[in-house]
Amino acid sequence: MPDSENPATPVTFPPAFVWGAATSAYQIEGAVREDGRTPSIWDTFSHTPGKTVGGDHGDIAVDHYHRYREDVAMMADLGLGAYRFSVSWSRVQPTGRGPAVQKGLDFYRRLVDELLSKGIKPAVTLYHWDLPQELEDAGGWPERDTAYRFAEYAQIVGEALGDRAEQWMTLNEPWCSAFLGYASGVHAPGRTDPAASLRAAHHLNLAHGLGASALRSVMPARNQVAIALNSATVRPLSQNPADLAAARKIDDLANGVFHGPILHGAYPESLYAATSDLTDWDHVLDGDLTLINQPLDALGLNYYTPALVSAADAAARAPRADGHGASDHSPWPAAGDVAFHQTPGDRTEMGWTIDPTGLHELIMRYTREAPGLPLYITENGAAYDDKIDSDGRVHDPERVSYLHGHLSAVRRAITDGADVRGYFLWSLLDNFEWAYGYGKRFGAVYVDYATLQRTPKSSALWYGKAARTGALPPLEPAA
C-alpha cells in the first residue's frame, strides 16, 4: 500500500523542502477603492447581478489590506516558511498603462518586509485573474496589446520588489483566465466566445514570455521565475479508441495549449487540428513561440482533482461534469464531442473527487515533460463546510486527511525521482471563492465574515507542525 493511502506510515521530507500557503489579491485584500486602486474585471463581474452566489463580491473580502501584519504573525506562529500572494494589477497600475501608483506598490513593499522580518519567504504571483477593467474595455486577453501591457506591469513590480522577493510567478492558472473567462463565462469578464478564448490563451502565453523577460531585465540573477499552471490529470473512461481520442483532445486543451509553447516552443499539431473550425491561429505571429519559450527556473503545478472523459453519446444530454461551474457554454472549445464523468470516491464541498494519485501522476508527468526543471505544488487544498465549535475551535479532520494524502503523494513522487522543492497549501484563509462567493471555505484559517476574526482550524495546526518538523503528523483515529 503506498504511503498516500496508509496514514500509519511515517512520511518525512527533505530538509530544504518549502512549506507554504497561498492566497490571491482579490480574494482577500478588500480596500478596492483605496490608495488609487481602480476596478478590475472581478470588481465589475462580481457587482453584476446573477454572476456570483448571493451577489457576493470582494469589496471587503477578509480585509487583508489592513490586517496583513496580523496575518503574517499568524503564519509565523504556525511555522510556515513561505507565503505565495498575488499583486493586484489595478492597485499598482490602475489603468493597466503608465506609471505606477506608489501607494499601491508600498502595500506590497510593506507586506514583503513584514514577511522577511518573520523569516517567511515571499513568493510573488503577478497575475491571478484580476485584469484592470480598462484593459478589458480595450479588448482584454483576446487582444495582443494586453500581453505588452503585462510586460510593462511585470517590470514595474520586479523593480519594486525584486531586491527582496526571490520567487516569482508570472501567471496563475492561465487556463481559467482564458477558458472560464472567455469561453464558458463563469469567471470574469464573463464572455462566451470560444474563438476569443483561444486567442486569449495565446496572448496569456505571450504575456508570460514577455513578463519573464521583463522580470529578468530588472531583477538579480538569483531570483527564480516560474509560472503556476493548473495542468490536468486527464483519464479516459476506457481504452477504446474514441475515449482515448477524447482524452487527447482535453489534454491538449487543458495542458498542451500552455505547456506546449512554454516548455517546448510549439503548440500541439493535434490542438491546431481539433480547433481548426474555430480559428486558423493567425494570431500566432512569427517569433511568438520563441518569445514564449523562455527558460524557467521552476514550474508551479496546481492540483485539485482528476478529469475523467469519454467520447460523447450523441443521444445523451447530461450536465457537463467537469467541475468548472454551471454554464450553457463550455470552457472546452471544439470539444462538444467529449463527455466528462464524475470520478468515483469521496468528494469535497466543491463536488471534486479526492484522489491523491492524480497529483502523483501529474508530478511524474512533468518530471518527464521537463527533465531537470524544479517543481513546486503551488496550490492544493479542499473546501469543507467548516463550523466553529462551542469552545471556539474549528475541527476539520476531513481537510487534515486530504492534506495528509496529497502530501504523501508528493513525498512518494520525490522518492520516485521527482524534484519537488515545496508545497503551498490553498488557502491560508477562508475567502471570496470567485463565483461561489463566501459559501465555499478553502482556508486552513477560519474567518468569521461578520467580525473578520481569524481562527486557525485543526488543519492549520496540523500543517504547521508538519512545516516545523518536516514530517507529517499522524492522523487522529476515526471516531
UniProtKB/TrEMBL annotation:
Gene3D superfamilies the record matches: Glycosidases
A GO MF label: beta-glucosidase activity
Active site: 379
Key words of the record: Carbohydrate metabolism, Cellulose degradation, Glycosidase, Hydrolase, Polysaccharide degradation
EC code(s) of this entry: 3.2.1.21
Class in the EC hierarchy, top level: hydrolase
PROSITE patterns per UniProt: GLYCOSYL_HYDROL_F1_1, GLYCOSYL_HYDROL_F1_2
Pfam families: Glyco_hydro_1
Keyword rRNA processing recorded: no
Record's catalysed reaction(s): Hydrolysis of terminal, non-reducing beta-D-glucosyl residues with release of beta-D-glucose
Protein family per UniProt: Belongs to the glycosyl hydrolase 1 family.
Family annotation (NCBIfam families): BGL (TIGR03356)
Protein name, per record: Beta-glucosidase
UniProt source species: Streptomyces violaceus
